[in-house]
Specification:
Radius of gyration: 23 Å
Distance between the termini: 56 Å
Structural class: alpha/beta
Largest sheet: 8 strands, parallel, barrel
Order of helices and strands: HEEEHEHEHEHEHHEHEHEHH
Number of helices: 11
Strand content: 15-25%
Strand order of the largest sheet: 3-4-5-6-7-8-9-10
Low-confidence stretches: none
Length: 360
């Protein structure tokens, strides 16, 4: 065994394609081709000879700790004690960030909702929307000091970045009191939608700096929210591309080395309507692994609330995070996909394409 070689002899592209044709049993190689999205070809036969650029390696800092567990708590008219019980249960089973999402106007019953919650140990966030029946300024002034307000930033949405800057100044509110959340959809023509969101971030950052505020503070309060794609390979390439785009974005504005730090990127895994709980658990596990291999900082597995789903599935879903942390043995400060040329080809090309179209 001491003479065992853990490598294979290199195979030329021609030899490799010939073997694929044999394995396809007279079917043409073209039958393997597909699309990532309309107009974006997925070429399945990628050989090391196709790679003409250095390997894509993400910063080591992204792979020293597993993603934080975010629990999304939706307020739908539940009794305060029931909501408090849901929050405490999530914390008992490992949640590290609690996001409370009210859907309509009403009194924010913080004392009852957060009873026995150690706010100095746990991060609690509130999703703000214009239909809460209260202004952002009022909400910022009447919530616990430890709570963070999440503001979904969309084109033509309210409040705009200019409104937020005005509220900050007129109310002397600390930047740490809120986060700006930019959502990157997974479906559709991904490169175009990603470019649109990055363009909006650029516009908001320009307004921020024109107001005399520090660009560093803007990046600290930004959250890039992504959705897990049902196609795991696509999710991996999209996440790695977004990491590179965000690192270069920060480098451009902050004039820092590319590998110093990553971005605050979170991944949300949503169940399909009526999806069998066990099937969702398998899919969420694969998506969670895909997100972790891309250095995602926050992972949120959303539990099904429709139909008769046993309550213990929420606890089992949270175990995905614990398995990634305790059993994957993956977080050693090394990018586990560095130099994976099939991923590198698309990560490189998608990053270059979007970056070239950004007006910076």
């Amino acid at each position: 065994m001491k003479d065992w070689q853990y490598t294979f002899e290199p195979v030329s592209r021609a030899e490799w394609l010939h073997q694929i044709e044999i394995d396809l049993k007279q079917k043409p190689i073209e039958t393997l081709y597909a699309e990532w999205w309309p107009g974006e070809p997925l070429v399945p036969v990628i050989h090391p000879e196709d790679i003409t650029f250095p390997p894509v390696i993400l910063p080591t800092q992204l792979f020293t700790n597993p993603p934080s567990i975010l629990e999304w708590i939706k307020v739908r008219g539940e009794d305060s004690s029931m909501l408090n019980a849901s929050i405490l249960e999530a914390l008992r089973y490992g949640a590290q960030v609690i996001l409370i999402d009210p859907v309509g106007p009403g009194t924010m019953q913080w004392d009852a909702w957060l009873q026995d919650v150690q706010l100095d140990l746990i991060e609690v966030q509130l999703a703000y929307s214009a239909n809460l029946g209260t202004s952002l300024a009022e909400l910022l002034n009447h919530t616990p000091a430890e709570m963070i307000i999440r503001i979904g930033m969309k084109q033509d949405s309210e409040p705009s970045i200019i409104d937020i800057i005005s509220i900050l100044r007129s109310n002397q509110i600390n930047n740490n009191s809120f986060r700006l959340v930019y959502t990157f959809p997974s479906s559709g023509v991904w490169d175009n939608s990603t470019l649109e969101v990055l363009d909006q971030i650029k516009t908001d950052l320009d307004h921020w700096m024109e107001a005399g505020l520090d660009a560093k503070d803007f990046f600290k309060i930004c959250i890039l929210s992504t959705e897990a794609d049902p196609m795991y390979f696509k999710q991996i390439v999209q996440a790695r591309t977004l990491q590179l785009l965000w690192l270069n974005f920060k480098k451009h504005y902050l004039n820092v080395q590319l590998a110093l730090e990553g971005g605050n990127i979170e991944c949300h895994i949503h169940p399909h309507s009526g999806e069998e709980p066990s099937r969702f658990l398998i899919r969420a596990s694969m998506s969670g692994l895909a997100a972790s291999m891309c250095g995602i900082q926050v992972l949120a597995v959303h539990h099904r609330t429709d139909g008769d789903v046993p309550a213990y599935f929420a606890r089992i879903n949270r175990n995905i995070h614990h398995l990634l942390h305790l059993e994957s043995n993956m977080y050693k400060g090394t990018d586990p996909l560095a130099g994976t040329y099939a991923f590198d080809l698309y990560t490189h090309s998608w990053t270059q394409r979007v970056w070239k179209q950004l007006a910076i």
